[in-house]
Amino acid sequence: MVHVIVLGAAAGGGFPQWNCACDQCQSAFHSARSFTQSSLAVSADGEHWFLLNASPDLRQQILNTPALHPQPQAGKRHSPVVGAVLTNADVDHVTGLLTLRESHPLAIYASQRVLGVLHANSIFNVLNPQYVQRCPLALDQPVTLCLPDGRPAGLTVEAFCVPGKIALWLEDPTAANYGSVPEDTIALKVSDADGNSFFYIPGCASLPPELADRLRGAELVFFDGTTYTDDEMIAHGLGSKTAARMGHMAMSGPEGSLAAFADLQVARKIYIHINNSNPVWTPGSAARCAVESAGWQVAHDGLEVRV
Ligand code: MLT
Ligand code: MN
Ligand code: ZN
Questions:
Q1: How far apart are CA 142 and CA 189, in angstroms?
Q2: Per-residue pLDDT tens over the stretch 47-67
Q3: CA of 245 to the centre of ligand 2 (A)
Q4: CATH number for the domain including 131?
Q5: In a designed cystine with 110, which of 16, 93, 114, 162 is the match (CB 3.0 to 4.6 A)?
Q6: What is the spatial distance between Cα 55 and Cα 236, in angstroms, rounded to a whole number?
């Protein structure tokens, strides 16, 4: 069985976002209803947990999640967190690594491209290289996740490229697609030894036929829920970028994820990485009703799922 805990359901910035005075964020500030930034925790045994992406809110997420608290019987320094698997180099997915400083054994898995980004930024050396292994994820083949001592953790991940874009902070404005290469955005299929599996795809710009075929009939998919409409940030006066410009597919519209998943027979579909501009945050909104009637669930921090 694979245990999954949603550590953070929101996209970069979280919900509410620190500097956002939009109606939805204001109501979240006033109700103290909040959601942290994009991350899952997964485990085969309930004892050893891998982070899927490491959010800037990681410390708060660990405080909120008893399964991730240190166990005193295991010694004065202990954490159930044994590693992290990264899907891109976005701020909301890598900066949590800095919370995991300093001399603590961990295994970090990412594409060669994203490992190169970490390597180029010496601040990530606060994860003491003597203790923290950086493991390149081979693409399109199952990779056994190992504990820092080398024993298998009972999980495999298959990483594959999905349509997307280089991290915003690494964009080259003069290059085609801002200098993106396919490995900039990967998705993960996480499986246990019995073949139970789920997909984690927090960033995805479109669903070409080969990706649709891969997901058809899946037990569980966590999927990019950044925006409901492609231009909602512009329409609400919150920014100048469409979802497509940010490397995300909107939920609604003929090119959106609701339409793309309609015939894929995925047993359980959960939106994750939801931007603070997305009206699905508001229970009872037309957008929330539309996604729920299409069989989707909107993730929330602390949601636990087993497959
Ligand atoms: C994204 O998901 O597009 C990024 O997290 C955006 C950002 O870094 O603000
Ligand atoms: Mn993001
Ligand atoms: Zn807002």
A1: 9
A2: 999 999 999 999 999 999 999
A3: 13
A4: 3.60.15.10
A5: 114
A6: 26
- For the chain, how many structural domains are there in total? 1
Paired residues of 110 in beta bridges:
136
Give distance in angstroms: CA of 297 to centre of ligand 1: 22
From the CB of 91, is ligand 1 less than 6 Å away?
yes
Query: What is the DSSP code string of 239-260?
Result: -S--TGGGT---SSSTTSHHHH
Ligand 1 atom nearest to 226, measured from its CA? 2
Q: Which residue is closest in CA terms to ligand 1's atom 7? A: 12
Copy the structure tokens of residue 286.
């037309």
Tokens of 201: 């795809």
Q: In whole angstroms, give the CA distance from residue 34 to residue 60.
A: 12
Q: Is the CB of 92 under 6 A from ligand 1?
A: yes
Residue 268's CB is within 10 A of a number of other CB atoms, namely 15
Taking 90 as the threshold, does the pLDDT of residue 215 lie above it? Answer: yes
* Alpha carbon 78 to its chain's center: 25
Compute the distance between CA of residue 94 and CA of residue 127 in angstroms, rounded to an integer: 12
Give the distance from CA 82 to its chain's centroid.
17
Cα(5) to ligand 3 centroid in Å equals: 25
- Ligand 1 contact via 12 beta carbon (within 6 Å): yes
Distance 72 CA to ligand 2 centre (A): 34
Question: Is 168 near ligand 1, meaning CB less than 6 Å away?
Answer: yes
| Residue 119 pLDDT level (bands cut at 50, 70, 90) | very high
State the pTM of this model. 0.98
Cα(34) to ligand 3 centroid in Å equals 12
- Give yes or no for residue 11 CB within 6 A of ligand 1: yes
Pairing of strands 186-192, 197-201: antiparallel
> What pLDDT sits at residue 148?
87
Ligand nearest the Cα atom of residue 277: 3
